[in-house]
Design brief:
By secondary structure, the chain is α+β, with helices and mostly antiparallel strands. It folds into five domains: 3-93, GIY-YIG endonuclease; 101-240, no CATH class; 252-291 and 310-364, no CATH class; 396-540, Nucleotidyltransferase, domain 5 (2-Layer Sandwich); 562-614, 5' to 3' exonuclease, C-terminal subdomain (DNA polymerase, domain 1, Orthogonal Bundle). It has helices at residues 3-11, 38-44, 54-62, 74-88, 136-149, 157-161, 167-170, 184-199, 202-218, 222-240, 292-304, 323-334, 346-387, 440-461, 481-493, 527-561, 568-578, 581-586, 589-593, 600-614; strands spanning 18-23, 29-35, 65-70, 95-96, 104-107, 116-119, 128-130, 252-260, 263-272, 275-285, 313-316, 339-341, 396-405, 408-418, 421-422, 428-431, 474-478, 500-505, 510-513, 520-521. The strands form four sheets. Strands 13, 14, 15, 16, 17, 18, 19 and 20 form an eight-stranded mixed beta sheet that branches. It has a six-stranded mixed beta sheet with strand order 4-10-9-8-11-12. It has a three-stranded antiparallel beta sheet with strand order 2-1-3. β18 and β19 (510-513) form a beta hairpin. The chain is globular and about 85 Å long. The termini are far apart.
């Protein structure tokens, strides 16, 4: 799109709330923003660019096209912006680093007998989610404590329905709803106490436990009363370790952001009943040249888009852009009014300052570790250049691996490290097409052939989406001389034989090079060897993960996909309920009918079809 067409599109922008998406010349989304008036907000990017921050000028210089989505309100625009940023990860938006990897504690309230489990995805399924936890160790300690204080089942739904008590029940770590030792109301009351604990309402929990203890004592159930007494003491011990920061017993989140150059760390303290119950931190990238209000607004939006609990009051170290809109959105999420406050004096200001100090310390530790890692990586690359006699620093290294089980579901992986760091966006995986049986050499040849033929094709045809065009400075093959020979044969056929290639054999960690009879041995404490091992292990992990996906898809999906009336939803429900296709085959007609989404007709179709296969 030329500038004339872009200007015409700018002139047609409506004076309404919505979301706008900026695209570059290749069609990639490079920025997502929201606006109460699309007309005013988007046009402002193209006026007086010399007064804009460097990052904004760079963004505008790359805008080749734009599109917009009109919404009914500014709050709807905010929600849509959050979702689009998370989906597309635009280059010029602030980046909340690694948010997809953070685990949550999930309480499955939608189940008859709920469980507490770890998950990395939040769904609208009726469960309660607590988190995200940036430190898996802290989450695991919380989970261990919960299971000690409030024993609930850990088994699958299929195991629960079998009606047999497990080892946890015999040693007192599960109330055994599977064989009727506990009724649903009593069990759910215990789960309610878990929710109180995770919400930080420890005093309410202690009051409930004391009431139950007194009732048990009045009914002469002294053993039960003693267990409740011990439980109360354990909970009080935990509460005693929590710092009291407010005499007003408020429920608050306290947020502060520390910045240094383009780096930023957002810290959240959770205050419940006037006590600090926990804290989490997140790193943000791409914040250079942005105001503190913009960074705070982004962090608040992205953080609360991922959590389930929103307190009535949120204290901020800096004001947030579009604060009223964010308050309205948070109020809808909470089901009640939410206030964002920037304290200027008193105890609340001291609390915000304490959170900011913690954020600054975390950021400084992060920067120190990063500088140390960068120095080690730079040294490793220089060592590889010297010891492998490369013409220069290997800025881009690619590694290839093959994975299969006795020749079935054979796959290949390609991982990429640039400047010594992984670049997952450039990873590629290959399903082997031309090789029958367990032939690693032929499979490796096919992978290298496809990779470099595609690179030549993209460069010759000038494709907009270049997925293979960037060529490596160094190729590592996971294997010995045989895999290396197959790879080099493919590379010669594709005209890229000048790219230096080595085979890295496992166990002895020997490096083989074509035309050299003796292997290269790097010292065991070599940073260069450690870097190659990390790259090789990553290629192996990526290949094995893809192989498992194909194998599971073949084992779990093929038979059910052939049954009339069984679509993705019912197939997923069957597998979640029974655990495997083999157990679906063993199920009775009545058991199949009991699965969510199934009726007698579809259940009979599954039962008859699978029975026919058995015959």
């Amino acid at each position: 799109m030329d500038r004339t067409e872009l200007e015409e599109k700018l002139n047609r922008l409506p004076d309404r709330p919505g979301v706008y998406l900026m695209r570059d010349s290749k069609g990639n989304i490079i920025y997502v923003g929201k606006a109460t008036s699309l007309k005013n907000r988007v046009r402002s990017y193209f006026r007086s660019t010399h007064r804009q921050a460097a990052k904004t000028r760079a963004l505008v210089s790359h805008i080749a096209d734009l599109e917009y989505i009109v919404t009914d309100s500014a709050v709807e625009a905010l929600i849509l912006e959050n979702n689009l940023i998370k989906e597309h990860r635009p280059k010029y938006n602030i980046d909340l680093k690694d948010d997809k990897t953070y685990p949550y504690l999930k309480v499955t309230l939608q189940e008859k007998f709920p469980r507490v489990m770890v998950t990395r995805s939040v769904q609208k399924d009726g469960a309660r989610y607590f988190g995200p936890y940036t430190r898996a160790g802290a989450m695991n300690e919380t989970l261990k404590l919960l299971r000690r204080l409030f024993p609930v089942r850990t088994c699958t739904n299929h195991t629960l329905q079998q009606g047999r008590a497990c080892l946890n029940a015999h040693i007192g770590r599960c109330p055994a709803p599977c064989d009727g030792r506990v009724d649903e109301d009593t069990y759910r009351a215990a789960v309610g106490e878990i929710v109180l604990f995770l919400e930080g309402r420890g005093d309410d929990l202690v009051a409930r436990l004391k009431q139950r203890m007194e009732e048990a004592a009045a009914n002469l159930e002294f053993e039960k009363a003693a267990r409740l007494r011990d439980q109360i003491r354990a909970v009080q011990d935990v509460l005693a370790e929590q710092k009291i920061v407010s005499a007003g017993l408020e429920d608050q989140d306290v947020i502060a952001i520390a910045r240094d150059g383009g780096d930023a760390c957002g810290q959240v303290f959770f205050v419940r009943g006037g006590k600090v119950m926990g804290r989490e931190h997140f790193f943000l990238g791409g914040t250079a040249d942005l105001s503190r209000e913009e960074v705070m607004a982004f962090f608040v939006q992205q953080y609360y888009a991922r959590v389930d609990v929103v307190p009535r009051e949120i204290l901020l170290g800096d004001d947030a852009e579009d604060r009223e809109v964010i308050e309205e959105w948070l109020g809808q999420k909470r089901g009640g009014r939410v206030r964002l406050r920037v304290p200027r004096r008193g105890d609340k200001l001291k609390l915000v300052e304490m959170v900011h100090k913690n954020a600054l310390m975390v950021l400084q530790e992060y920067q120190l570790a990063r500088r140390k890692g960068e120095a080690m990586t730079a040294g490793a690359l220089q060592e590889l250049r010297d010891r492998l006699q490369l013409p220069g620093i290997p800025h881009r290294i690619e590694c290839y691996d093959i994975s299969h089980i006795q020749g079935s579901d054979t796959v290949g992986s390609m991982v990429v490290f640039e400047e010594g760091l992984p670049k997952p966006v450039d990873y590629r995986r290959f399903k082997i097409r031309t090789v029958e049986g367990p032939d690693d050499f032929a499979s490796m040849k096919e992978v290298l052939n496809r990779r470099f033929r595609r690179a030549r094709q993209e460069l010759e045809e000038g494709e907009l989406s270049l997925k293979f065009a960037a060529l490596p400075d160094l190729v590592i093959i996971d294997g010995g001389k045989g895999q290396l020979s197959a790879a080099r044969e493919a590379m010669r056929a594709c005209g890229v034989e000048e790219i230096l290639t080595f085979g890295l054999a496992k166990e002895e960690e020997l490096l083989f090079r074509e035309g050299r009879s003796t292997p290269i041995v790097l010292p065991g404490d070599s940073e260069g060897l450690r870097l190659l091992q990390r790259i090789r292990d990553e290629a192996h992990r990526f290949a094995v993960t893809y192989h498992r996906q194909l194998r599971d898809r073949r084992q779990h999906g093929s038979v059910l996909d052939e049954i009339p009336g069984i679509g993705p939803k019912r197939k997923r429900a069957l597998l979640q309920h029974f655990g495997s296709v083999a157990r679906v085959k063993q199920a009775t007609l009545e058991e199949l009918i009991s699965v969510d989404g199934m009726n007698e007709k579809t259940a009979r179709a599954v039962h008859d079809y699978l029975a026919g296969i058995e015959r």
